[in-house]
Amino acid sequence: MTTLNLLGKACPIPVLETRKALAQMNAGDICETLVDNETAVQNLSKMATQKNLTFTSEQLEEHRFSVRIVADGVAFHSTEEEETPDVCIPCNPQGKKVVVLSSETMGEGDPVLGQKLMQGFVYALTEQDRLPDTILLYNGGAKLSVEGAATLSDLKLMEEEGVEILTCGTCLNHYGLTEKLGVGSITNMYVICQKMSEASFIIKP
Fold it and tell me: pTM for this one?
């Protein structure tokens, strides 16, 4: 049995990491995922149900849950149907996909929760079948690409895969972070406007 300790990890990390683990397992192998909230348990259970996989869940103690899923060896493997041209249309290189991060938080309300959601969103980007062509960071979003940011490693991973990471220089200067840029390069509002104008898809959480 493989155990994934994902205590403290926000959605969608538990589901994505469990999917990756199950994809590497043989039929009959068990993946145990440890999480600290019932929402993660529900999401993992829903994923297993959708894939017709056998699973069990239990609460081990306060803020500690175990979800065990039995791999079937095929649920997360590509099929011929999934590889048809219709599914691959979004991968058209002519369709530029740009992600805009204008805040260090996602949504409105509790800022601590907002930071966790944004961290989860950036991580989820790394797991997409097609990565964005460009990620633009400005205003509070500039704080996501500097040294010490929880999102820095995921942004670096995407940059290594060819994603263009551009952070507003005026914004970095405003927050006193110009010397702490940890990934990508500094840009200006003209380029930001140009990238957005040329994009076929703009994603802004």
Answer: 0.68
